[in-house]
Design brief:
GO terms for molecular function: GTPase activator activity. Keywords: Cytoplasm, GTPase activation, Phosphoprotein. One of its GO terms (cellular component) is cytoplasm. It is found in: Cytoplasm. The longest helix is centred in the last third of the chain and has 28 residues. It is built from 23 helices and 11 strands. The radius of gyration is 27 Å and the shape is globular. By secondary structure, the protein is an alpha+beta fold. It starts with 31 loop residues before the first strand and ends with a strand.
Length: 655
C-alpha cells in the first residue's frame, strides 16, 4: 500500500537510516530527487537562506515537503516492525447520510425509536435556509435508500420536516427572543431592523450586518452563517475574487471585529451547549460545502487492533487516561508536552529546527527507552538532543492509530484547499476545528502554538511560515488507508494543497478557536424554546400535584423581596471564591466584564483564598445559555439585553 503515487512506502513506525540525519548541518548520503516533472536535486539545507517574506508556496519551497516525505520513507525502510494499516471503508449507499444525521443529532428522523420528536422540532426550528437544505438533502437520500432496501421505518417527508417554519405565524418574530437567527422566507426586510444583535437569514437578498458594524474584505463576519454569506455572494464578482490559485500570492491578515456581547472561545461553554454547537457546526459546514459545490464526505475507518499502553502508536484517549492517573485533569498527553518543552529548553533559534532529522540509531534507542522509563520517571532527558526531540515529536503525531485530524474529517481538511476564496477556507477550518474531539482539538492547539513560536524565531532558525508548513504537512496529512493511485501530477498538487492548509492553520490559529456568534445564538434559541416547553410541562404537573404547586408558589413568594432589591438596570454578581461574595452592579454603556472582576478583586479581607485577575472570570449562567465564560471586553449592558434572565458569577475557569 502506498501513500502517494511515486512514493516508496507508507508512513510507518521507523527512523532515518544510521548516519543519515546526523548533527545539525549534516547531509544525508546521496541526494533526493523529487518525483514530479520539475524535479531537481537539492542538498540538505539548501533552502535555509530562503527569504522570510515569501508567502506563496512556489515550486522551490516545496523542496522541504518532499524532503520530509523522503525522511519518513527512509525511516520506514529502516524499521522491520510494521503495524497494521488503517483501512478506510467505502460506505454503502445511504450509510454516509445516516451517519451524518446521527452526528448532527437528527437520528430520530429515520430511526425506529423516534425519541423526543419535540426536541428535534426545537432544533430544526433554529436552522437557517442553507442549513435546512443540507438536512433535507441527507434525509431524502436516506429515505430513498431505505425504500430500495424495503425498510419500513417511518421517515417524515422532507417537505414536512420544516412545516412549522412555513406556518404564517412563524413569520412574525418575537422581539423578546434572544436568538440572532431568523429562518423565515419573509422578504419584507423589516426584521433586519430588530434590536440587539438580531438579523434575518433565509432569503436570497444580500444581508446587511448589524447597525454600526462595517465588515471589510479581511473581516470575518461571525454574525451571519457562513453558508448564507456564500449563497448571497456566490454569483457576484466579489465571490469570484481571490481564487485559491492566484489569491495565495496576496496574503490576507483576517481579523475578528469586536463583538459587544463578547467573543466565545472553544472551552468557554458548558458541555451541554458545546454538544449543540458541534451538531450545528456539522450542519453548517455541510451547507457551506453544498453551496460552494464541493463534495463533503466523512470517512469511516475499519476497526484495528491498537496498543492499550505505552507512548507511541497509542490512541489519544488511552494516553490521556494513563496521564490523568499521574496528573489529574491533564488534557494534553504528557509525552507530547515534554517533547515540546525539551525542544524549547535548548533554543528555538537553532537553524533548521524541525527540518533536520535526528540521528536514526539514537532516536530509535530513545524511543525504546521512553517506552520503558517515561512513566517511571527514570528516563534521562539529558541524552535527548534538540533534533532528536523534534523527530520524536513528529513521530508521535504520525504514529497515532488514527490521524490527529481524525479519519472522519481528514479528507474534509484536505479539501479546504478546493474552496473558492481564502475567507471561505478559513470559515471551513473554523468549523472543522470545532468538530474535532476534545483531545484531538486540545493537542492540535498546543502543536500550532508551538509551531508559531518556532516561526517567531525565523530570523535565526531560518524556519519561515512556509518552511514549517511544508515540514509539518506530511506528518499531519499523510496516513495509512488514504493512499492515492492517480497520476503523479497529483502528488505535486497534494503537496501544495496540504501545505497551504497547514500554513493557514498556523497563521490564523487564534481565529480557529472562536465559536461563531451565529452558532451561539442558535444554541440560545434552542435553550429558550426548550425552556418554554419545560414551563408548559411544569404547569401541567402543578395542576396534577397540588402540594408541589404550593411549595413552588411559596418559594416564588420568598424570592420576590430579593428580586425587588435589585433596581432596573442593576445586576447582582456573585463571587463565592472571593472575600466580597456579592455585589450589586449598575449597568452602564461602557461597563465591561473586566471592570466587574476588577471591582471584586479590589475588595480584600478575611482569610478567603487570594486569586489573581488572570485566574478568575465572569460567567453568564442560565437564562438562554447553560454557562458561558465571558471575555474581558464583553459589554455587560449589551449582553444583559440579550440574556436578561442570566445569573452572573465570578469564579476560576475550569482547566
Amino acid at each position: 500500500m502506498s501513500w502517494l503515487p511515486g512514493s516508496r512506502g507508507v508512513v510507518l513506525t521507523a527512523y532515518h537510516p544510521s548516519g543519515g540525519g546526523g548533527a545539525p548541518g549534516g547531509r544525508r548520503s546521496g541526494q533526493y530527487t523529487m518525483n514530479h516533472d520539475n524535479s531537481k536535486k537539492t542538498p540538505d539545507g539548501a533552502s535555509f537562506d530562503r527569504s522570510g517574506s515569501q508567502d506563496s508556496l512556489d515550486e522551490l519551497s516545496l523542496d522541504d515537503y518532499f524532503k520530509e516525505i523522503e525522511n519518513i520513507h527512509e525511516t520506514r525502510r529502516n524499521n522491520h516492525e510494521e503495524r497494521e494499516a488503517l483501512v478506510v471503508k467505502e460506505p454503502d449507499e445511504g450509510e454516509l447520510e445516516e451517519e451524518w444525521l446521527k452526528e448532527a443529532g437528527l437520528s430520530n428522523l429515520f430511526a425506529e425509536s423516534t425519541g423526543d420528536s419535540q426536541e428535534s422540532m426545537v432544533f430544526l426550528s433554529t436552522l437557517t435556509r442553507t442549513q435546512k437544505a443540507a438536512v433535507e438533502k441527507r434525509v431524502e437520500t436516506v429515505t430513498q435508500t431505505l425504500r430500495k432496501k424495503n425498510k419500513h421505518h417511518q421517515i417524515p417527508d422532507v417537505r414536512d420536516i420544516f412545516r412549522l417554519q412555513s406556518d404564517p405565524k412563524e413569520k412574525v418574530c418575537d422581539e423578546n427572543e434572544p436568538s440572532a437567527v431568523r429562518t423565515t422566507e419573509n422578504r419584507s426586510g423589516t426584521q433586519d431592523e430588530t434590536k440587539g444583535s438580531k438579523f434575518s437569514v433565509g432569503t436570497n437578498e444580500q444581508k446587511t450586518p448589524p447597525q454600526d458594524m462595517q465588515f471589510s474584505e479581511t473581516d470575518l463576519n461571525l454574525e451571519i452563517p457562513f453558508a448564507e454569506q456564500a449563497a448571497n455572494t456566490k454569483d457576484s464578482s466579489v465571490g469570484k475574487m481571490c481564487k485559491s490559485g492566484g489569491g495565495d500570492t496576496l496574503p490576507l491578515n483576517f481579523r475578528l471585529p469586536k463583538d459587544k456581547t463578547g467573543t466565545t472561545k472553544i472551552g468557554d461553554l458548558a458541555p451541554q451547549d458545546m454538544k449543540k454547537v458541534c451538531s450545528l457546526a456539522l450542519i453548517e459546514l455541510t451547507a457551506l460545502y453544498d453551496v460552494l459545490g464541493t463534495e463533503f464526505k466523512q470517512q469511516k475507518a475499519a476497526k484495528i487492533k491498537t496498543k492499550d499502553s505505552g507512548l507511541f502508536g497509542v490512541p489519544l484517549s488511552v494516553l490521556l487516561e494513563q496521564d490523568q492517573k499521574k496528573v489529574p485533569g491533564t488534557k494534553i498527553p504528557l509525552i507530547f508536552q515534554k517533547l515540546i518543552s525539551q525542544i524549547e529548553e535548548a533554543t528555538l533559534e537553532t537553524e533548521g529546527l524541525l527540518r533536520i532529522p535526528g540521528v536514526a540509531t539514537r532516536v530509535k534507542t530513545l524511543c525504546q527507552e521512553l517506552e520503558a522509563k517515561f512513566y517511571e520517571g527514570t528516563f534521562n532527558w539529558e541524552n535527548v538532543k534538540q533534533h532528536d526531540a523534534a523527530s520524536l515529536l513528529k513521530f508521535f503525531i504520525r504514529e497515532l492509530p488514527q490521524p490527529l485530524l481524525t479519519v472522519e474529517y481528514l479528507k474534509a481538511f484536505q479539501d479546504v484547499q478546493n474552496l473558492p476564496t481564502k475567507k471561505q477556507q478559513l470559515q471551513a477550518l473554523n468549523l472543522l476545528v470545532i468538530l474535532l474531539p476534545e483531545a484531538n482539538r486540545d493537542t492540535l492547539k498546543v502543536l500550532l502554538e508551538f509551531l508559531q513560536r518556532v516561526i517567531d524565531h525565523r530570523d535565526k532558525n531560518k524556519m519561515t511560515l512556509n518552511n514549517v508548513a511544508m515540514v509539518m504537512a506530511p506528518n499531519l496529512f499523510t496516513f495509512h488507508g488514504f493512499g492515492s493511485k492517480t497520476i503523479e501530477q497529483s502528488e505535486f498538487v497534494m503537496a501544495a494543497g496540504t501545505a497551504n492548509v497547514m500554513r493557514f492553520m498556523i497563521q490564523h490559529q487564534k481565529l480557529l478557536w472562536t465559536i461563531p456568534k451565529f452558532l451561539v445564538n442558535q444554541v440560545r434559541k434552542q435553550n429558550a424554546e426548550s425552556q418554554k416547553k419545560e414551563k408548559k410541562d411544569k404547569a401541567m404537573k402543578k395542576l396534577l400535584k397540588k402540594m408541589a404547586y404550593d411549595r413552588e408558589k411559596h418559594e416564588k413568594q420568598d424570592k420576590v423581596p430579593n428580586d425587588a432589591d435589585v433596581p432596573q438596570g442593576v445586576i447582582r454578581v456573585q463571587a463565592p471564591h472571593l472575600s466580597k461574595v456579592s455585589m450589586a452592579i449598575q449597568l452602564t454603556e461602557e461597563l465591561k466584564a473586566s471592570d466587574i472582576v476588577a471591582r471584586f478583586l479590589s475588595q480584600k479581607s478575611g482569610n478567603v483564598q487570594t486569586l489573581k485577575k488572570e485566574e478568575v472570570f465572569l460567567y453568564e449562567i442560565g437564562g438562554n445559555i447553560g454557562e458561558r465564560c465571558l471575555d474581558d471586553d464583553t459589554y455587560m449592558k449589551d449582553l444583559y439585553q440579550l440574556n436578561p434572565n442570566a445569573e452572573w458569577v465570578i469564579k476560576p475557569k475550569q482547566s
